[in-house]
Each structure stands twice: as structure tokens, then as C-alpha cells.
Specification:
With about 110 residues, the protein is an alpha/beta fold. About 40% of the residues lie in helices and about 30% in strands. Pfam families: STAS.
Amino acid sequence: MKLTYQLQKEEIAYFLHIQGDLIGDEVGPKLVEMVSDAVNDGVKTFVVDLSEVRYISSSGIGLLITMLTKMRNVDGEVYLTSPSEHVKKLLIITKLNNIFTVFDSVEEAKKKIK
């Protein structure tokens, strides 16, 4: 399933809604570029909504880590929200749930990061 995304810029954070399979293909560099743009705009918080992501490959995991590294290099943070059961298991198996802050919903993330 092809990956599509929407970026919503708000004052408190950039919100990225991803749909499809996160496999780090041709969309990967665009997502990293969005984080770089956020950093350039002085935004320190990036929220990635995974509610409609079915599958994440090892390249997709690498992509999320790259995004996180870019934000943390400027004292920023990437938060993940609404992972499916499959994605949640993957985050636990890879121990990424210890590296990323994961919220159950975008609304919960918005309340916590204000």
C-alpha cells in the first residue's frame, strides 16, 4: 500500500499524518526534509500520527530514528501517536517504545505537549 501523508503546521507543533506502509521508499527523504524544515522554522515538536500505518519495515524504522535524531539535535522531540496493534508490537520488539514517547491519540499528545 502506497504511503501518503499530510502535514499540519500548528503553533505548538507540526503534525504529520501517515497512511499506508512506512517502508522508507521515495517518500522517506521527503519526510526527513519536513523535519529539517520544522527545525529551520524553529519548531521543536513533531508529532507523527501512525493510526493508518499498516506496516513499518526496517527502513521505515530507520526513517523514524533519523527524524528523531534531527529533532533531538536541536533539543526538540518527535512523538508517535495512535500506533496499530501491529506497529505497537514492532515498537516493543525493537525497544523503540523506550526511545520514542508514544501517545494513544493525537488529542492526548496535544494535551501533554502544550
